[in-house]
Every structure is written in structure tokens, then in C-alpha cells.
Amino acid sequence: MNSKKNSISKMMPVFLTFIVMGFVDIVGVSTGYVQKDFELSDATAQFLPSMVFIWFFVFSIPVGVFQDKIGKKKMMNIGIMVTLFGLLLPFISYSFIMVLIAFVFMGIGNTIVQVSANPLLQEVVPTEKLSSFLSLSQFIKAITSLLGPIIATFFALHYGNWKFVFAVYGVVSILSILWLSATKIEETIKSETPATFTSCMGLLKNKFILALVIAIFLIVGADVGVNSNIQGFMMKLHGTTLETASYGISVYFTALMISRFLGAILLQFLKPIFFLISTTILAIGGVLLILFSPTEMVAYVGIFIIGLGAGNLFPLIFSIAINYLPTRSSEISGLLIMAIVGGAVIPPIMGFVSSQLGVVPSIIVLILCFVFILFIPMMAPKKIENL
């Protein structure tokens, strides 16, 4: 393995971009505070995560195509700058409309960052360890996701302004741009032919790629659905306060962080397909525990188990897809990141179901999302089954 692949100095600024990627998860705790500040209904409040994740559907493929032309590092810096602009908007004017606009820019920026991050990581880590490093990168992202609700709640309780978390994120964004810009990364993994919109969409004719795209849609939808509904679950099932319920989000992201750290180690030895099924079953078990939780503590345990199970699903699907067709990583990345629009679709569905039928049916929506993942091995070609 050449020195480029093993260079810690090249890996570190790329890993920092995964911290920036985690900024978008602040939408979970933000939904609760914005709903309280502007007295919004459950259904209306769930449009806040939609304003973040709908842009994955709109921009992912164009970003993947453009990235193939200008390079992954340049595309990454553009994404971080767009994110930074979104972080500044709530300080200009705090209204529901301005918060929506802010999360639009954060969503667009995060779309670009996510399309660029995994292919860029592919350039600086050993090919045979990609699954492990993708789990490690998601572990790093989970650190941000874990700290976000804690930082927001700290500022809300001690300074009366939860939005100061955006200022902290802004400083880190600037550091990330400067560090990545100063780091020389030779991009050697190129598409066999120039990527186009048609070539990206043509990949969907491959039934296995299509199944993986649907899987990402449901995984992200379930993840955002858990993140943005934990407060509601805890308040409606067990009568906790908003502030106390917000810590449930940190419980979830703590589990995600532990799961991804363990995944980075275990995937050195275990096959991705086996690990995918095992962790999916664990996530379903966690949802069922919340559904039948007799006490607040049992519900928190269920939230933790969901995080342990769901933590590696996204990087596992991503690594399986990229290893399946490595020379088309930018196009595959664009398709898979497009599927993150599931984060804009599943939470409003859950919000609607909760408003119309109650909290229990909305939890069942999560179970259905995870169940689809169990069918992936049945569609996997021999090349993937033997990974």
C-alpha cells in the first residue's frame, strides 16, 4: 500500500469533514425547540427536517456529475461554505421562515458534503479496509450528532438561546475549509467514462443498486424519524418535559457513536452482509422495546438499542455499493446520497400518522423501514455475498 493511502496527514482533514457532515443532525433537537418557540403542530414541525433532506433528492446526482469534473476536494469545500452560510442565518433574524431557509442551505451544503465525503475518503484509505474506515468516519460524525443536543440544551438552559450551537458549528466549518484546502490529496480513482445524469440514472437498471438506493432511503428516513421524534415519544408515552426528553436524543447518538466505533473494529473480521442483517435485527428489537416500554428508563434502553443496531447500516450499504462498482463511485455516491431524501419523507409520514392515529402507529412506521433491509442478502450477487 503506498504512502498516500496510509498518510494520517491526509486522513485527518477528511475525517474533520465528517464532523461538519454531522451538523445537519442538529435538526432533531432544533425541531423540538422551534416547535415550542413558534407553537407548531406535530405535522408542521416535521417539515423542518424535510427542508433539510429534500435537497438530497434534488442535488445529489448533479453534484456527483459536477464532482467528477472538478474533483472531490473542491466539491467538498463548496459544500462546507454553503453549510456555513446556513448556520449564520438564524442570527440575522429568528423566525420560523428564516429557520426553514437556514436549514434549506444547511441541507444543500450537507448534500454536497455527503456526496463528496465517501469518495474522498476512498482516496486516502486502503481499499480493502473501506468498510471499516466508513464506519469509523460515521463514528466521528456521531460525535457531532451526540454533542449537538447537549450543546443546544446547555445554551438554552444557561444563556436562554439554544441557537448559539450554530456559532460553534460555524467556527468548526471555517477550520475544516482551511485545513482541507491546505492538504494536498491526489485523486486517482476516476470514472471509466465521464459521469453524466443519464449514466447515473442508468445504474438504477441494476436491481441490486436499486435495492441499495431504496435501503438508504429507508435507513435515513428511520434515522431522522427516530432523531426528530424521540422528544415526542418520551413526552407522549411517559410524560417527560421537553428538556428532559431532549437528552433522549443524546442517548440515541451515544449509541450510534459506540456502534460505529465497534463497527470499525468488527468489520476488520466480519463480512458486511452478515453484519448488516445482525444489526438490523438489533434495531428492530430496540423499536419494539420502545413500543412496549412500561417505564421511561426502559424506553431510554430501547432508544439506545436502536442506535446500536442502526449505527452501521448507512456505511455498510455505502461500502457494499462502492465495492460492487468501485470505478463508478461518484455516480453511486450521487445516487445513494439522493436517497437521503428519505429523511424528508419518513418524518412527515410519522408526524401525520401520529397526529391522525397516535404515537404507537408512528413507531410501527420505523419497524417497516428496518424490515426492508433484511431482504438485501436475497438480492445480493455472488460477488457481494463473498465479501
Describe this protein's structure.
The chain is an all-alpha fold. The chain has 20 helices and no strands. The protein has helices at 3-6, 8-21, 27-38, 42-45, 47-70, 72-92, 96-124, 130-159, 164-182, 197-202, 207-238, 242-266, 272-291, 296-310, 313-324, 329-338, 342-357, 359-373, 376-379, 382-385. It is globular and about 55 Å long.
SSE layout and pairing:
Layout: H1 3-6, H2 8-21, H3 27-38, H4 42-45, H5 47-70, H6 72-92, H7 96-124, H8 130-159, H9 164-182, H10 197-202, H11 207-238, H12 242-266, H13 272-291, H14 296-310, H15 313-324, H16 329-338, H17 342-357, H18 359-373, H19 376-379, H20 382-385
Helix pairs in contact: 2-7, 2-8, 2-9, 3-11, 5-7, 5-16, 5-17, 6-7, 6-9, 7-16, 8-12, 8-15, 11-12, 11-14, 11-15, 11-16, 11-17, 11-18, 12-14, 13-14, 13-15, 13-18, 17-18
Features:
mainly alpha, 20 helices, 387 residues, 82% helix, disordered N terminus
Number of strands: 0
Which overall shape is indicated by the principal axes computed on the Cα atoms? globular
Quaternary: single chain
Low-confidence stretches: 1-6
Distance between the termini: 20 Å
> Helix and strand succession?
HHHHHHHHHHHHHHHHHHHH
Helix content class: over 70%
Secondary structure category: mainly alpha
Please describe the biggest sheet, giving its number of strands, its sense, and whether it closes into a barrel. Answer: none
Radius of gyration: 20 Å
Count up the helices: 20
Residue share in β-strands: under 5%
The averaged pLDDT comes out at 84
